[in-house]
User: What shape does this take?
Amino acid sequence: MEAPLIDVPDGGVTSPRGFRAGATAAGIREGAPGRLDLTLLAAEARCAAAAVFTTNSLPGAALGVSRAHLADGCTQAVIANSGVANALTGEQGDRDALEMAQLAATRLGVAAEDVIVASTGVTGWFMPMERVRAGVGRIVVSADGGDGFAHAVMTTDTVAKQAAVRFEWDGVTYTVGGCAKGSGMIHPNMATMLAFLTTDAPVDGASLPGLLRETVDDSFNQLTIDGDTSPDDMVLLMASGAAGGDPMGEGHPALPLLRAAVRHVSIALTRKLARDGEGATKLLEVRVDGAATMNDARSAAKAVAGSLLVKTAVYGNDPNWGRVLVAVGNSGARLDASRLGVAIQDVDVFRAGAPAPFDASALSRALAQSEVRLRVDLGAGEASANAWGCDLTPEYVRVNSEYTT
Amino acid sequence: MEAPLIDVPDGGVTSPRGFRAGATAAGIREGAPGRLDLTLLAAEARCAAAAVFTTNSLPGAALGVSRAHLADGCTQAVIANSGVANALTGEQGDRDALEMAQLAATRLGVAAEDVIVASTGVTGWFMPMERVRAGVGRIVVSADGGDGFAHAVMTTDTVAKQAAVRFEWDGVTYTVGGCAKGSGMIHPNMATMLAFLTTDAPVDGASLPGLLRETVDDSFNQLTIDGDTSPDDMVLLMASGAAGGDPMGEGHPALPLLRAAVRHVSIALTRKLARDGEGATKLLEVRVDGAATMNDARSAAKAVAGSLLVKTAVYGNDPNWGRVLVAVGNSGARLDASRLGVAIQDVDVFRAGAPAPFDASALSRALAQSEVRLRVDLGAGEASANAWGCDLTPEYVRVNSEYTT
Assistant: This one.
């Protein structure tokens, strides 16, 4: 990319033009009075949108509504809540999710069919609809409401995750922004969390699904916190077109730039999600090179990032390359054992299929940082991929053994 | 089965006639002087044998030797060690594994091609061959050496795992015995640990592989401790025929009984492995009914037993059926959402696709036992399967973050 992507400090979903958001403490999340838990995001007009949904075969009620409302490739608004996932709630759950879309539509003056619904929190609980009704009535959307939106979708997240970048093309400044939530139940095949991406670029509706899919495969879908894919996961991309300029369809010279911007924001959010994994003390970034195919690269990287034995070794500052290779061996990725290599914090510990001498104490000290990089060379081809995760800590166990009781 | 299986108290690999074993403290395991870590198992004569090996694509050196030595379906002896896995050790590792077979052969007076090698312990370390050579020379095998064998293959195991049963047929008493080791790096596709099964039944060599495969799929392969398949896993079944009687081939009326006995011992060992999972405080048994196929039943059961969120909920005495269903939804098993059911400690908590009222405090107390049973009905067919695992505890993290450093 020749034209640079410029970070938007404190940017988020309302950084691109044409989006407003607002949030309230509706009391959906029990025992957390005053905490934002219900939020709206609205575009000025109906706009092109695409989404990727969970692969879990028991999707939450909100996803059914969102999928239907996105069938025409357009949407205008989002209603999202934390505290209750409205998943495994049967027909009552479906009715509640539909009513949420209607409540948002009435409040924002848009069509209910143009509202996406997202719920995250405890599985199996019904939505407290009285509180949702009262809460929606209190939400006021504004052009600086992105921060509230990002906070209102947090569950066990300890920080809000937001990012935005801008780039110029033909005298016009375009912005891509986003936020994400999720710190547990995070694994493959749909990023296993919620992410909302917005842009003011006038993207051709036909180009949007492919652009999103491609981005998600390289970012959110390469994230693993604990191996469980949530029933409620969704990544949504909305393009308001409010920045103006020609519609960006296939072949438009600015499309690669837009793709790079969406990818940049998605990877920034993925890294923030990984770093805030439940109980995590470290971000784990795994890079796999030398794979026979992109699928091999992705699955090997994700196998390493998801291995409990790798994750506990990372927690314990243990340069245990054996566990890295065990995970690689389990991934199904093709490899040339005689060319295999592993580097930990950029120190070669296994090279050309054999252990390489290294200073274990020094490397253990290097592992005691908040960011750990593992690199594997499969020696079997040219494809590369990254995956992101975090260490597994006693705190993860504590958080998850005390969730509902 | 009409004829009963009778437990052999304190039984193990030398309970069947025709097997002897012995072990020594060879000092392979550093920092554990006096601990048994090298062992031999020998049949009186060459006998029929079958094995199932790890699916990890970077198998340990011992596996290459064992696979070659089993190619003719016969073997006579086993040399096994703990402390060092001899995995990811390149050509030196291959040479060491082969020498171990030769050392055992010389000591026992058998052919080196009839010796199976098994190594378990730290990955990436070379075998201390001087100690192995000296150790083998000290081992004396005897008919009551099974207990020493079981102890010598332990790594982070806190208890030895052994079992044996006998049954009668046509006036002859047949015995099946076994032992297993493993408490971490345990997951699908090869049981991800070592297990040694012996019988004195005169099993037809052609029937043995099928009998073993079938048993392993229902027992060891349904065990998951932490999702990582070790490079060193193997289940070996040796049939000495020393009890006498007709050769048991396909169609022999005693074969179902033998199969039941092998299965009984395998499941008993699987349960012992699960209960002794690293850091575990509880055995988790998951039963899935109503699956469309056996594969669906197995994968759903294993998905639940392997879910970190289920495992932490079990640790926390949290009757969190939502996490059970999330894991089911991620397994890919077909299900009928309107007929789905979940029971925890035999209490229905989800029935006919909807939450069922239950006393959460009472159920939480019921979960505070050393054995937790989860039952899922997929409502999609007639197939059933079990899986076994354990809870995920802060102790698991502690054990695994301090393994080599």
